[in-house]
Specification:
The chain has 639 residues and is of the alpha/beta class. The protein folds into four domains: 64 residues, no CATH class; 81 residues, Immunoglobulin-like (Sandwich); 132 residues, Immunoglobulin-like (Sandwich), CATH 2.60.40; 306 residues, Glycosidases (TIM Barrel, Alpha-Beta Barrel). The chain contains ten helices and 27 strands. Strands 9-10-13-16-17-18-19-20 form an eight-stranded parallel β-barrel, surrounded by five helices. Strands 1, 2, 4, 6 and 7 form a five-stranded mixed sheet that branches. Strands 8-21-22-25 form a four-stranded antiparallel sheet, with no helix packed on it. α4 packs parallel to α5, α5 packs parallel to α6 and α9 runs parallel beside α10.
Length: 639
């Protein structure tokens, strides 16, 4: 075959030769591409493929038909052309605007037109000066880093299909300065031992008893108690003199205390005194003189005046007195409790067996059940929203049960009181009557059990501080009068041995509630989303009976509270013996100035916006307690 030297051979041969020579070569990389958020749709470039004309013009002016052999003019021989490799395309995701914290970028949008599997190579190419951010991985389809400073972070990605690498793709993450420094904090608090814990709190431990605080305490009691004789409060028919009561109330308030009281219609025996107003005795409205002189001691007859408890006029005037006193006292928030008193010796609902009604004047008999019920009701009517307590003696079981579990006049549950704490066998009156006690044994769960001592000397074999301790434990007594001990003299405290003194101190430590923060967890995001959970434990023998709010408080570096949040929960339901209660909340912190803050957990008087005085914050019984009674949960930083 004669082929002119200037003729072009079929271009397919050239193409095959070029594929064989350049089949794995890579093209020169271009500048990195910045992703816009959508994978590229531009046609990829095949590697090693040089375009070749399929129609060539011979020098002699003739044209070789496309796809035919110039030597024969027919169909060229059949041959197989390998598929050209196409450069993969990297995609690092779209730009992000985020806050401080974890940032994730994903290269899942990268592609390879040939369907080859690809591998990933990430690089953190730029970050703010001072940042310590690093990628969690450089070879996975997605990676992340912790943005620890505000500013711009640039992450680049290249992918490889086993033959060639893609051009680099990059994504920019812009991190704004966070309002708060993110953190997660957990704390376990240290409980104070009950044998050494001298925490003083309201309505627990010792209360100030008629101007006395005999048992040594680290700080004064937060409740004060007094008693008043009817004749001193009403000097004439409807003429009331509450000056002493109101003065005692104001003194208690000025000392940060609440006030408790009892009104008495008689005291003890054989003193020759009348303790009801003189106008009442032998008043024309009395059925039988409204009282009589009883013979308590035959050796000194007729020296004990006993009111006629059944006389309607005496009952009417007693009720009027209590109503007037209630009005004079004013705000119920000032009152810790009021004894249901009036009736019996010292207003304690008991009369000595030495009072023999068989010797009483005609028409005067022992108090009927209806009359005793009326003396309870007159207190309930006068003080329907105040805390009251009823003397708990077995001989008055019906009245005690009525007042504490059956009455419907007062809105607050009525508690109980005993006035002979420490006397050996005194509470046998209840333990020896289990059926009756069963109806009263849970009263302490919703209303306080108050007590005071019977005087007992040092070394007494039956009446001792250890007996008092056991009574406090067994009957869930919350608060004890800090007086009426020893011989009642000014030096009665010093008359006890050091061991007895420590035992008396221990009575106050064990009486009532002992709330403590057990554990707490705090979480804060950079955007200021605060999550707090805390466990509060009551190691005492009774709950609190006053309204408290458990609060989160944020204080600044000057100690000023700039924000607070009430936690959901009621301490009154946490009844003691180690019972626990959980408090939790998630809340967005409001905007604050740059600086350092302390997050506190504190229990405050729920009536603090209206009450006078406001109770001091409840003091948690933990070693980490701050001077205001609360605990610090965490230190927070606003950037």
């Amino acid at each position: 075959m004669n082929i002119p030297l200037n003729r072009t051979i079929w271009s397919g041969v050239v193409a095959l030769a070029l594929v064989a020579c350049g089949g794995g070569g890579s093209s020169a990389p271009s500048a990195p591409a910045t992703n816009s958020g959508t994978p590229s749709t531009a046609a990829p470039t095949a590697t090693g493929q040089t375009p070749v004309s399929q129609n060539t013009t011979p020098t002699d002016g003739t044209t070789a038909p496309t796809g035919t052999s110039p030597s024969t003019g027919g169909t060229p021989p059949t041959s197989t052309t390998p598929q050209a490799n196409i450069v993969p395309v990297a995609f690092a995701g779209g730009a992000q605007n985020v806050g401080l914290g974890l940032v994730t970028v994903n290269g899942g949008g990268s592609s390879d037109a040939n369907g080859d599997p690809i591998t990933y190579a990430w690089t953190l190419t730029s970050k703010p000066a001072g940042s310590t951010a690093v990628l969690t991985t450089t070879t996975a389809v997605a990676t992340s880093f912790t943005a620890d400073m505000a500013g711009s972070y640039v992450v680049s990605l290249t992918v490889h299909d086993g033959k060639v690498s893609s051009s680099a793709a990059s994504v920019t993450i812009t991190v704004a300065a966070a309002a708060w420094q993110a953190q997660s904090t957990s704390k376990v608090f240290t409980a104070l031992a009950p044998t050494t814990d001298d925490t003083v709190n309201p309505m627990r431990g010792y209360y100030r008893w008629r101007g006395q605080e005999k048992v040594t305490q680290v700080s004064p009691a937060l409740d004060a108690y007094q008693r008043y004789r009817w004749k001193d409060l009403e000097t004439g028919l409807g003429t009331y003199n509450f000056a002493t009561v109101l003065s005692d109330l104001q003194t208690a308030k000025s000392q940060g205390r609440k006030f408790a009281l009892r009104v008495q219609a008689m005291l003890g025996y054989d003193d020759g005194q009348v303790y009801i107003p003189s106008y009442v005795v032998n008043h024309a409205s009395c059925l039988n003189g409204c009282g009589w002189w009883a013979d308590y001691d035959a050796g000194t007859p007729g020296l004990t005046f006993v009111p006629d408890w059944n006389d309607p006029y005496l009952q009417q005037r007693a009720s009027a007195l209590l109503l007037a006193l209630s009005t004079a006292l004013g705000s119920q928030d000032d009152i810790a409790w009021i004894d249901i008193g009036m009736f019996g010796q010292w207003g304690e609902w008991a009369l000595s067996s030495g009072i023999n009604y068989a010797t009483a004047p005609a028409g005067i008999v022992a108090a009927t059940d209806a009359s005793k019920r009326e003396f309870v009701d007159m207190h309930l009517r006068a003080f329907p929203t105040r805390q009251m307590v009823m003397l708990a003696i077995y001989s008055r079981y019906n009245e005690v049960r009525y007042a504490t579990t059956q009455q419907t006049i007062a809105s607050k549950p009525v508690g109980m009181r005993i006035d002979c704490l420490g006397r050996g066998g005194f509470m046998n009156q209840w333990t020896h009557h289990p059926t009756e006690w069963a109806t009263l044994q849970d009263v302490w769960k919703t209303a306080p059990f108050v007590a005071e001592y019977c005087q007992f000397p040092s070394g007494d074999p039956a009446d001792t501080p250890l007996v008092a301790q056991q009574q406090v434990r067994d009957f869930h007594i919350s608060t004890v009068g800090n007086g009426n001990i020893g011989d009642g003299s000014a030096n009665s405290w010093a008359s006890y041995t050091p061991t007895e003194q420590q035992q008396l101190i221990q009575v106050g430590r064990e009486a009532g509630y002992r709330y403590r923060v057990d554990t707490a967890n705090v979480g804060l995001t950079g955007s200021g989303l605060l999550s707090v959970s805390a466990v509060v434990r009551n190691d005492g023998n009774a709950p609190t009976y006053e309204p408290w709010e458990v609060l989160l408080e944020l204080t600044n570096s000057l100690g000023n509270t700039v924000w607070s949040q009430t936690m959901v929960g009621d301490l009154k339901t946490n009844q003691g013996a180690g019972s626990i209660q959980s408090f939790s909340t998630t809340v967005q912190l409001p905007s604050q100035s740059t600086g350092d803050y302390t997050l506190k957990l504190i229990a405050r008087d729920a009536r603090r916006l209206s009450a006078t005085p406001v109770r001091a914050p409840l003091r948690w019984t933990v070693a980490e307690r701050t001077s205001d009674g609360g605990v610090d949960l965490a230190s927070l930083r606003k950037n």
